[in-house]
Specification:
Elements: E1 2-4, H1 6-14, H2 18-21, E2 25-28, H3 30-45, H4 52-64, E3 68-71, H5 75-88, H6 92-104, E4 108-109, H7 113-124
Parallel strand pairs: 1-2, 1-4, 2-3
Helix pairs in contact: 1-3, 3-4, 5-6, 6-7
């Protein structure tokens, strides 16, 4: 199992299904809406896809088959994400994926280099007190 951020899930749905076929994924529920936004962007703004509904069906299937498990926000997750965001200069929407990965002890998969660095720094204790 891995923690998958929105960029990883979106890439798996839109471009490379092998990314999402072999992994059980854990992600904050925020990811579902961010991935839906990526599908909308690729259809409505970029014109790279025509039938966004088909890609959203893949997302729905991941949820229905429990290959993508979502974590709902609670006080602890909100506070952990906030602490990470403040310490590492990350947006809270990115920090929540890092918080889930750190709490679960799972690897974070992302195509966002800045988010990857925050995860690595937070995991190693760098950036504490920043």
């Amino acid at each position: 199992m891995i923690v998958a951020d929105s960029s990883f899930i979106a890439e798996g749905i839109l471009a490379d299904r092998s990314l999402i076929r072999s992994e059980l994924m854990l992600s904050p529920s925020l990811a579902v809406y961010e991935v839906a936004g990526a599908v909308w962007k690729h259809q409505a703004l970029l014109g790279r896809i025509r039938e966004g509904d088909k890609f959203l069906a893949v997302l729905s299937d991941l949820l229905a088959t429990r290959r993508l498990l979502t974590v709902e926000p609670d006080r602890e997750l909100i506070m952990d994400a906030h602490r990470i965001a403040v310490r590492h200069g990350a947006h809270p929407n990115d920090a929540v994926f890092v918080a889930v990965a750190l709490k679960s002890g799972l690897e974070l998969r992302t195509f966002d280099a800045a988010q990857r660095k925050v995860f690595e720094d937070a995991r190693s204790g760098r950036g504490e007190g920043a």
